Amino acid sequence: MLSEIEGIVKNIVAQPLTKTESDLNALAAANPKDPGPLLASVIITSFAQSERFKDAQAILAKAKPLISTNASDAEAAFSNALYEALDAQFALFEFVRPGTKVPANPAAEQKATTALTALRAAAARNQSSSVAQTITALLFAIGRSSQANFTTGVNLLNGLSNQGNTRDLATFFLVYAHRRAGQYPQAISVAQQLETRNPNSAMVKRVIGSCYFLTNDMANAEKYFKQALALSPQDPGINLSLAQVYAKTGNAALARQYASDADKFDTAKRLTTFIKPLNAA
Fold first, then answer.
1. SS3 83
2. Would you give the end-to-end CA distance of the chain in angstroms?
3. 109-165 pLDDT, tens per residue?
């Protein structure tokens, strides 16, 4: 399942939202029984990679109407509860760069808590969907909520990462949860286990590189970003990541080179805010 999602995710940064919508339509058509959780997997995973809040909202709005009429009552209820929970998280600006300070918003936080509780109840009624369980666990682990909810989410993801057809997706989400919590050694350790099962995944290698970058280990960050780039050379986000490594290490020429490539491949011009200062260095 991780490779299926990665096939869609890797182009989302560069492509216009109309193309993303067609990809989501194709995914929904291929999973007519219960596309809601799979669509949300794409939304969350793509945003985990690109960290673009506004585009994630737009993608979510496109995906909402695709919930299948062929789904069972439990599946449809879960999909609807899932989108409500995502909406509540987006309202909190929850999906932002690690370390970004999020202002308090008690009303929105209460709405998110209520939505998360409803989602877990819907997931419990939809035991047939391992994707449902996986995404519910993720939202508990990364939501702006209590330490108890984070622990619950991580424990659920740990269990799901050892079983079934969603184990790689659950493992990737576990990496992301640790990364979001600033637990970078744990994130790297789990990601490297995932890498052994997915040695040709640019998405996995990039997330390992990002963890090393956040710990200021530029040598390993460069190593993993280069491995990711070799697997996906026209990914603007990976090119940008390498540009940021070289800017951090004082190699302005290479920073400009990779920033220029990122700009070239970023046909939708969504990364301009990050690319422009590197090009000007």
1. helix
2. 40
3. 788 888 888 988 888 887 667 777 788 888 777 765 567 778 888 888 888 888 777
Q: CB–CB of 266/279 below 8 Å?
A: no
Q: Are residues 139 and 85 in contact, defined by beta-carbon separation less than 8 angstroms?
A: yes
Q: What is the largest CA-CA distance in the chain?
A: 57
Instruction: Give the pair of three-digit tokens for residue 121.
Output: 């109840």
How many Å apart are CA 52 and CA 65, to the nearest integer?
21
What tokens does 144 get?
A: 């702006």
- What six digits make up the tokens of 216? 């200021």
Q: Domain residues of the chain, as ranges?
A: 1-176, 183-281
| The CATH number fitting domain 183-281, selected from 1.25.40.10, 3.30.70.270, 3.40.50.300, 1.10.246.40 | 1.25.40.10
Alpha-carbon dihedral sign for residues 220, 226, 231, 233: positive
Other residues' Cβ atoms within 10 Å of the Cβ of residue 127: 10
pTM exceeding the 0.85 threshold for the entire prediction: no
- DSSP code of 99? T
DSSP letter assigned to residue 163: S
- Residue 166 — pLDDT band, cuts 50, 70, 90? confident
Nearest to 64 by CA among 40, 44, 47: 40
